[in-house]
Design a protein that fits this description.
The chain is built from 2 helices and 5 strands. The protein is of the alpha+beta class and 82 residues long. It is globular, with a radius of gyration of 12 Å. The relative contact order is 0.16.
Length: 82
Amino acid sequence: MMKKVIPASSPEAYAVALSGWQRAKVEQLRAAVLGSAPLDEVIKWGHLVYVSNGPVLLIRAEETACFSASGEGNVFEKSIHC
């Protein structure tokens, strides 16, 4: 079961709150996403979410993996990045 945490106040605060490989991986994914398209980066559902006329991509750091999910509407396809 995932721990209940207070969401970060900004995307930068989300990344800064991480450490070690999680922070490095999230920073790498953030740079790739922000360099690929003009998307807005926000905190939604407690995670990094990239929007353009609605959610486009989500990045979530957990204890053992970092996930990214993309898709249309409420259907997201997950990838695991370790």
